[in-house]
Write a structure and sequence with these properties.
By secondary structure, this protein is α/β, with parallel strands linked by helices. The protein has one domain: Rossmann fold. It has helices at residues 3-15, 25-34, 42-54, 77-84, 88-101, 115-123, 136-148, 161-172, 186-196, 215-226; strands spanning 105-109, 128-133, 154-158, 177-180, 205-209, 232-235, 239-243, 251-254. It has an eight-stranded mixed β-sheet, sandwiched between helices. A hairpin with a 3-residue loop joins strand 6 and strand 7. Helix 3 (42-54) packs antiparallel against helix 6. The structure holds S-adenosylmethionine (SAM).
């Protein structure tokens, strides 16, 4: 962990607020549902078992890593999972967010070993999860694992985001939910955001991972929050949640999660 990252965390910690600082009913209810729900949903056990299985999987992945951190030296499913998969604490936020907002279509940029895809698929079996990754060898393995678990609401889309993402949003026309979790550079983040914008509606939700991981990502996050199309933006340090609902006041709420 770099010193810069630690300093960013300290700054977040001291500027962050709690549920008692949420002055609108919407925000209060949102925080309670998405961050404060401590129910032990049985789906969590399914996802935790899947992660455990992956962490013991020595299958070698020979295709090169993609994205903003290609220097990560990973070669097995176990190592890749350790390096990239969302921890339960944050994957649970995606799960609860989906249960609360009930999107019909769910897009994920960055499947990796499928941990966050599984949480999102389990959260709403009636929704279709479209998960994208350029690591085709890995995606095929994860696809088989999901078939073995009989998870049927996930479409795995192989290829570079630059090609697959615009094609998908054009096909879907209207987007309910996107989890941006790959290629964390300023240019790519803004490009994907702008690609998706013509397809949003009042209840669309975007989640950006790693918003405080680098200066570039902080800059992208600030620009997204300041954009005229966004209203309520919630910063939980490791992730940022963006809403477009025009009935909500425009603000960035830094929540101490
Ligand atoms: C952080 S990992 C995703 C982790 C996953 N969402 C989870 O929590 O379980 C990012 C993934 O994005 C993929 N990726 C990065 N840049 C990409 C690009 N330009 N096109 C396609 N895939 C890319 C990488 O192959 C990697 O598997």
């Amino acid at each position: 962990m770099s010193v810069k990252f630690l300093l960013r965390f300290v700054s977040y910690y001291f500027s962050s607020k709690t549920v008692h600082d949420a002055h609108s009913n919407f925000l209060f209810n949102f925080i309670r549902a998405v961050f404060l729900d401590v129910n032990p949903y049985p789906d969590y056990d399914i996802a935790k078992n899947y992660r455990k299985q992956l962490l013991n999987d020595a299958t070698l992945i020979t295709s090169p890593a993609l994205g903003a951190r290609p220097q990560i030296k990973t070669s097995t499913i176990a190592q890749l999972t350790g390096a990239t998969a969302k921890q339960h604490r944050y994957a649970k936020v995606l799960y609860l967010l989906i249960q609360y907002c009930k999107p019909k279509n769910i897009i994920e940029l960055g499947t990796a070993t499928g941990v966050s895809a599984l949480y999102q698929a389990l959260a709403r079996p009636s929704a279709k999860v479209h998960t994208l990754d350029g690591n085709i060898q890995l995606l095929e393995i994860v696809k088989d694992k999901f078939a073995q678990m009989n998870i049927q609401n996930v479409e795995f889309i192989p290829g570079l985001f630059d090609n697959t993402f615009p094609a998908l949003v054009n096909k879907l026309q209207t987007i309910d939910y996107i989890f941006f979790d790959g290629n964390h550079t300023y240019d790519s983040t803004i490009k994907y955001f702008e690609t998706a914008l013509p397809h949003i509606h009042n209840k669309t939700i975007f989640i950006f991972d790693d918003i405080n991981w680098s200066n570039e990502m902080q800059r992208a996050w600030k620009e997204i929050c300041a954009h005229s199309s966004t209203t309520l933006c919630i910063d939980i340090f490791m992730m940022g949640i963006v809403l477009f609902d025009t009935s909500l006041a425009k603000q960035t709420f830094v929540y101490r999660y």
